[in-house]
Amino acid sequence: MVDLTDLMDDEVFRAFASYATIIISKMMLMSATTAFYRMTRKSPPE
């Protein structure tokens, strides 16, 4: 079984974790931005 400290030292895992964090952050930001845009423009839901 892989030890957690060994997994954190792996360069590929660190790259995956950082890109996943960026994508999830972007997805949350775009969701809030879209909701704000639709509420201020009174556009109907699709």
Q: Percent helix among the residues?
A: over 70%
Oligomer: single chain
Rg result: 18 Å
User: Which range does the strand content fall in?
Assistant: under 5%
Counting helices, strands and paired strands, the structural category is mainly alpha
Number of DSSP E strands: 0
Total count of domains: 1
Average pLDDT reading:
87
Strand/helix succession: HH
The geometry reads as rod-shaped
Ends: how far apart? 47 Å
Please give a structural write-up.
- This protein has 46 residues and is mainly alpha-helical.
- The chain has one domain.
- The chain is built from two helices and no strands.
- The protein has helices at residues 4-9, 11-41.
- The chain is rod-shaped and about 55 Å long.
- InterPro entries: MAPEG-like_dom_sf (IPR023352).
- It comes from Saimiri boliviensis boliviensis.
- Keywords: Membrane, Transmembrane, Transmembrane helix.
- The chain crosses the membrane at residues 16-37.
Topology of helices and strands:
Elements: H1 4-9, H2 11-41
Relevant terms:
Microsomal glutathione S-transferase 1, single chain, transmembrane, 46 residues, 2 helices
